[in-house]
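#random but structural
TW: two for the price of one
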Amino acid sequence: MSLVKLYDTTLRDGTQAEDISFLVEDKLRIAHKLDELGIHYIEGGWPGSNPKDVAFFKDIKKERLSQAKIAAFGSTRRAKITPDKDHNLKTLVQAEPDVCTIFGKTWDFHVREALRISLDENLELIFDSLEYLKSRVPEVFYDAEHFFDGYKANPEYAIKTLKAAQDAKADCIVLCDTNGGTMPFELVEIIKEVRRQISTPLGIHTHNDSDCAVANSLHAVDQGIVQVQGTINGFGERCGNANLCSIIPALRLKMQKECVSDEQLRKLRDLSRFVYELANISPNKHQPYVGNSAFAHKGGVHVSAIQRHPETYEHLRPELVGNMTRVLISDLSGRSNILAKAEEFHINMDSKDPVTLEILDNIKEMENRGYQFEGAEASFELLMKRALGTHRKFFSIIGFRCIDEKRHEDQKPFSEATVMVKVGGKIEHTAAEGNGPVNALDNALRKALEKFYPKLKEVKLLDYKVRVLPAGQGTASSIRVLIESGDREARWGTVGVSENIIDASYQALIDSIEYKLHKSEEAESVKK
């Protein structure tokens, strides 16, 4: 089984999509998930382009990844400037990535009209830049921008640009369909010609403007390409990039290519949903392999057939990619998913236990109200513990009040929260201010509870996301709040849903605090 290396550019190319933006903390969390899936290269961004990417490369050094290499992206040197004086190249090296990926011009039209230099000068830019990086970075990849358009316009010159990269000893030359307009039958013939003239390992980077990005990537692999670039869920500029959530299972299960393990492949759906949640975008339910509807069946012949032989209407077993069969008119699915999550959280459950069905019913009822547990697994674990009777109630909230007041037109609003909590037989009544009602409520809860549970001082609220749930009710719509919290050891997500944004935030905050207290108690019992 031949190995195909996976190169993810969600954190760079993916963020160029309309409506997509990740905080540095988001990018770090996604990097860990990509590493767990078995992605070989994670492109973190362009360190010379913005402070957020600079911060990412600084912070990722503090994280422990099991096998993924971190790549920094940039361009060839500017004309008339030597590589050692070029700010972009120097910044790439200073970021200290495992890999540097730079792009250069392949299309003679771009060389003349965009760079406004001679064709020979462009070859020098490519060679000099790669040679400079090769002596300073462990691995260097060259993205041949607009390669297929360039080849169709001037095949001789397009190949010359690849030879310049090969002469500079690039570790991989990536053929890019930057405009996304190349058809699969064109791509196959062009790659055949490239392989006759270029001996350096080749990669593929396709965009989806003609809805052929996945097909083009798979055809490229069939032609001997050894590195595939893409993004999770196909995020990317215009119509998006090649979707790794479709490419990975196709490589592994359809083409028998070595890329990720069977165990890692089962994490694919969770990763897809996780990235959607952090991007604050509703998942595409009709997405192949990982979407809710990918293995859903509705009535009639399909349902009776899959009950006997699932392969009659399913092209592969959904469990292979972490998904599940759904029969929309009955209650035949869901239990196995609950049992798998319970095992992940080290909670003993039996498939015949009535509690399993109770949890399933609770989840279905909560999902109908707008709850979603991807990215909020701490809330999911607490839900299971409550159903099993293993949930300890560390405190009770007697009540709370939030005040948001704007005292003068030219001043910021003033926020204050008051809470009354009961711990054991003691009642604590506390008030705190904040830069908004949710922050004030968080501060008041901590202030009241830290007296009894000092470990809560370790908890930090890392991220807060709000999504209005589609119901056509305007400002009266339900709201889902996703909160990420963390301490020195871990990060966890919690969720709350309500028509009231403060109440939804309150639910997520309470779950976050309870989860920390449960984990601290479990850690103490292990020590004893």
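TW: number two ↓
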Amino acid sequence: MSKSISIFDTTLRDGTQGEGVSLSADDKVKIAKKLDALGVHYIEGGIPGSNSKDIEFFKRVQELRLTSKITAFGSTRRKGSVAEQDANLKRILESGVQAATLVGKSWDFHVHTALQTTLEENLSMIYDSIAFLKQKGLEVIFDAEHFFDGYKNNPEYAVAVLSKAREAGADWLVMCDTNGGSLPHEISQIVTSLQGPLPGANLGIHTHNDCELAVANTLSAVQAGVRHVQGTMNGYGERCGNANLCSIIPNLQLKLGYECIGEENLRTLTNTARYISEIANVNMPVNQPYVGNAAFAHKGGIHVSAILRDSRTYEHIEPEKVGNKQRVLVSELAGQSNVVSKAQDMGIALDPASEQSKHIIGKIKELEHEGYQFEGADASLELLLREASGELKELFTFESFKMLVEKAAGQPVVSEAFVKVNVAGESIYTAAEGNGPVNALDNALRKALVQYFPTLKEMHLADYKVRVLDDKDATAAKVRVLIESKNFENSWNTVGVSSNVIEASWEALVDSMRYALLGQISPEHVHAAEKRQGLVNH
């Protein structure tokens, strides 16, 4: 039996049904690129034609030429209709995808109650829809909704549904625990029972986490013969969420010996999970297995003493295998090791025994206590380390800024920013408008600097996220602002924290431009700028 597992990610569809998860078309494109880099085999993008965001996503994703197969989701034809004339099936074809996921009823209770049709008509709906898409050249993944509940109530009909989908040409027959109420032993027994009526069938599993068993149920299904696994990153999804691929993939690959994604791809799992968390603007639990910030964290006492000798004493895998890292809390020595390692990754020479090193470690701890988080803001961290090591040459310094926000009756809000910075000993004062305070600040700061540093024309702000750190303080709470910036070659993230969202945004904004100038503007550029100051209109 093959040990290869097909990984199907539905973060962009099923994941967005989770409370608090809302993704723009741009967010979905970013996540799709990240999932493709991770190496998942299928990326379910959404429901074509259901909303403008999904329409834009399916159009834009075709231009990316991803390795992963983009799939569109839809239901079988309506009762009493013809597949060729079904609007939902037509939209799937128009989306330009390589594969389609069709959902159909497999629980007789749902057929009678939800669809209000006969069991025979439901089978025809399934057959006609799959056969139509197969005739059009699409790969078809059939999701048998409520399969396990249906099997428990009427096993003959549940099996008949899968058999009919197989007869129509479905490439994968996916059994869904839609209500999330099944237990691992039930999943295993039911999957095993299908080997008789469906020999050699390509079976898949799709579970929900209502009993906190989605991952366990998925593993049970795989061990019983399933070779296609559906889930979401970080377990996003309706109600209690979907099966968490961040746990499923390493469990299958590292614990059970199945082939899911490449070994090197697995090392990017933590980065992918945290990136998607930031894009979705949803807090990732620190204790999330494998990819959480505390997944390999140790705090004091016997544990720390032991893992410093051999990490296997209190770690079930090497954290690096999933791209995570060991963290020792309340340990100055371990803190030095972590910071020095990070500095080395950035090409910064930092002596762990020096006072300079101790100072920067203390500074980082102090900032993290205030609410800064550098996990998703490597650019701000690098600036901090370079400043501490004496390698950072400040090409401009901040003097002041002012904001004007005006709202007149019946008119849109107008934001205007006034910024004063110092370049090469000269004060520069500029003003600019924007469609919001942060955009106005960005425009004013860029206007002040671009005349001296033309490369700033190549960068732009790609994303902006605000997270409340402690909601008990209501509108006076501290916020953390994360800004993603891009130029033609790279992207980088910076962070700012304050009880004032404008100040936090300004910190992140300034860091984004300071980072953009690293290694791009030499002192000679500044000297040349000084020479032409007389020609510059301040």
